Amino acid sequence: MATSLKPADEVIASLQLLPSRLEWSNYSTALDGVNDVSVGRLLTNSLLIAGGAVVGNVLSCSLAAYAFARLRFRFRGPLFAFMIATIMLPHHAVLIPQYIIFNQLGMVNTYWPLILPKFLATEAFFVFLIVQFMRGLPRELEEAARIDGCGRSAVSSWSSCRSPAPR
Questions:
Q1: pLDDT per residue over 87-96, tens digit each?
Q2: Any bridge partners for residue 34, and if so which?
């Protein structure tokens, strides 16, 4: 807080904790921005990217985790093991191939390369975490929902459950 009120020449040059004079104009300069980049623009970018990543991770990782936790299909075990093994893959190993793909798709310098992969269940840790949570849920809950008329399809929701007919 004290450094934010220091004059520009004192920020690096002086090791004093308190400034020699208070520069309240630093806050207006920060809010107006530098080189046509304002704090509002930076905040909007952060919220858009973080919000898109959270929504993408929750949707895609939940669907993938449900499939691994509850559905029985061929090669489920090896596919789950392969997905878990991707946790050990360094991020730098996929960075250049991702850049090449997004460059060929014309998406470089857009928000899409930062948000789109999150909608493809690329975060193996989150899938694993949700799988472990879903395995802890009793199957009786799912059976009770099915008895009440809910389906197992990926597009089913609470609204697709048939409510009991009035008597």
A1: 999 989 999 9
A2: 37
DSSP-derived letter for residue 37 is B
How far is Cα 94 from Cα 115, in angstroms, rounded to an integer?
A: 16
> How large is the average pLDDT for residues 55-69?
95
Whether 68 and 130 have beta carbons less than 8 Å apart is answered as no
pLDDT band per the 50, 70, 90 thresholds, residue 156:
very low
- Structurally, the chain folds into a number of domains equal to 2
| Whether 113 contacts 102, CB under 8 Å | yes
- How many helices, marked H, and strands, marked E, lie in the chain? 8, 0
Residue 26 sits in the same domain as residue 69: no
Q: 70 and 126 share a domain? A: yes
> Is residue 95 included in any domain, yes or no?
yes
Q: Read off the pLDDT of each residue in 8-36 and give the average, rounded to a whole number.
A: 83
Distance CA 13, CA 15 (A): 7
Q: How far apart are CA 34 and CA 23, in angstroms?
A: 17
Residue 110 placed within a domain? yes
**Residue 124 belongs to a domain:** yes
**Contact present, 131 and 68 (Cβ < 8 Å):** yes
Domain residues for the domain of 23 are: 3-32
| pLDDT value for 9 | 84
Three-state secondary-structure class, residue 34:
strand
